[in-house]
Amino acid sequence: MNDQELQCFLAAAKHLSFSDAAAHMFLSPSAFSRNIAKLEKELQLTLFERDTKNVSLTAAGFFLNQQLSQLYTDFLLCIQKAQMLQMGLSGQLRLGIPAGHTMDPHFQQILRTFERASMDFHIVLQRPACYELTNRLLQKSFDGILTTAAQVEAHRELSCFPLAAASLQLLLPFLHPLAEKEDLQPEDLQKETILLPSQLYPQTVIGQITDYLTQYGLQCKHCEAETPDQLLLLLESGQGLLLCHGQNLLCSSPSVVARTLPGLPEIPMVFAWRTDNTNPALLRLLDYLRTAE
């Protein structure tokens, strides 16, 4: 039994007319009748009662039509779903974003456009700790991650697409004496302790920031805090001022004031994925990224 034979049977059962069903199938009446005859022979069933004027279903034909109609519809939907998966128009895309950080605005816009263009598509977003992102990508827990370029450059099995570099912000408590100073300079911070959350950045970035602070004779203190709540607690308890990624959620907190410092190094950001990942949804997203360059 092939697909055309099955379609001919369902069409004949629907129209109860071989000529009408043949026209619906764009087949000649003789070719249509041969398909029905071949199906009946293969199944060893008489599916239709025929006379010169009428066609009707036998009991076996009526039962088969009842059972097969929904099954065939489900079968076609399964094929369509599989085709959509292969084309990246359907499926699941698992993305990782650093905990406590907002998504890169340009990437966010691309993702929205991509999702709107997908017919049956599900994006799963997670925010693990920054230091976990690369390992989870390597372990295939994610299809792609937003991270710093330094986090992935040592891994040959990963590829990456450059995003806009992230600026560093100096965060001060809202009531700090320097909070109202717009044109803040490194020289203004001589009496302050600068907190550097070392868990949030790779060692290369930590080294660049440390060199910058040393250049201006500023006191640096590494801290293990990584969530916005933990970092805010350090600020509110007066332990120092905080150098933070510009996309950290803490930058938009009403309890702090964010200021830029001249010459602070920027952090190159990337979207990274495993080179051997063949998820069609990922491949389609990469096409969108390249087109939007």
What structural category characterises the helix and strand content? alpha/beta
Listing every helix as H and every strand as E from the N terminus to the C terminus, the arrangement reads: HHHEEHEHEHEHEEEHEHEEEH
**Low-confidence runs (pLDDT<50, min 5 residues)?**
none
Mean pLDDT level? 87
Order of strands across the biggest sheet? 4-3-5-12-6
Largest sheet features? 5 strands, mixed
- How many domains in all? 3
Multimer state: single chain
What is the CATH class name of the largest domain?
Alpha Beta
CATH superfamily of the largest domain: Periplasmic binding protein-like II
Helix tally equals 10
What is the CATH topology of the largest domain? D-Maltodextrin-Binding Protein, domain 2
Task: Summarize the entry for a quick read.
The chain is α/β, with parallel strands linked by helices.
Element layout with pairings:
Elements: H1 3-15, H2 18-24, H3 29-43, E1 48-50, E2 55-57, H4 59-86, E3 90-96, H5 105-117, E4 120-126, H6 130-138, E5 144-148, H7 149-152, E6 158-162, E7 168-173, E8 193-197, H8 203-215, E9 219-223, H9 228-236, E10 241-245, E11 256-259, E12 269-274, H10 280-291
Parallel strand pairs: 3-4, 3-5, 8-9, 8-10
Antiparallel strand pairs: 1-2, 5-12, 6-12, 7-10, 7-11
